[in-house]
Amino acid sequence: MRLQESLSAAANRRRLPAILLALSIGTAGGALFQWLGLPLAWMLGAMTATTIAAVSGLPIALPMRLRNLMVVVLGVMLGSAFTPDLLERLPQWTGSLAALFLYVAVATALCQVYYRRFGGYDRTTAYFAAAPGGITEMILAGSALGGDERAISLSHAARILLIVLVLPIGFQLFGGYEPADRPPLGDAASTIPLQDVAILLLCGVVGFFAARRARLPAGALVGPMVLSAAVHLSGLTDSRPPGGLVAAAQLVVGASIGTRFVGILLATILRALALAVGATVLLLVITAAFGLALHALTGLPTQAVLLAFAPGGVAEMSLIALALGIDAAYVATHHVIRIFIIVVAAPFTFRLLRWHRPRRE
Fold this sequence. Notes:
single chain; about 350 residues; 15 helices
């Protein structure tokens, strides 16, 4: 055990320059986007800058533990959007939550056909590359069932990159969301009572370890979010994490997307991005169709439905909702349920359709 700990510590020390470089590049990108007045500047700027750095071959890295730590902060932040008045709005979500099952089925089926036809992927790879969510789980399940792990990984990474980049800027250009209109993310640190600091800290720590013990998908986000939602719904606190800490969390989450492209040949990345552009356009068209239909049927705001159904990461889409002042509780709830649907149903459905062919050793 001591030998393993020593080796792990040594590995982290060797990676430290790469980690510091990634954070420095991400900070520079975030500061530039903030100066330009772009939405969700710290996440989008860090993501863009580190992606360019990764494609350029710079030695950058970001440990998963750091990302998980910051995702815990975002989980607590998202939980604060579940205010007591939310209970009156819950019945309005029934229709869109039911439609989410149909959306997942339609999006997966059409994207699978796309990857088979235009990407030349085998059936297993196309299926798990198409399922819109649960990136880690889809990579593990797909590779275990004989799919191409790198193709699945690149498909999901490129999809999230494009969705996260396109949606906030699109909302600003066409949705009328001006920088001055955006609510601040988080409270001023000096205004949070010490009792509330302790409550928020407990939500993060207890929620994280409880979710990990229960092996929940996206547990670093879901556990703290559920616990934070419970204390905010009960009225125990109405405080949110400090704004500076939320900005740092955005930066790390954005940089973690960019560092996924480290060590991959430029030609491979460009092909994955080209395929992802087509898949993303297809998914956004499907999302828009569901958004407009649900708005007509239920009266829910189209912007909220679009963000709730858009196939990006749970943390990323929820952050966009927070940044643009759209109902973050509605958006986060739909994305968490989408991930559960895909993680549970995708491998089961794949086997049910008898597409599985055991991988030859």
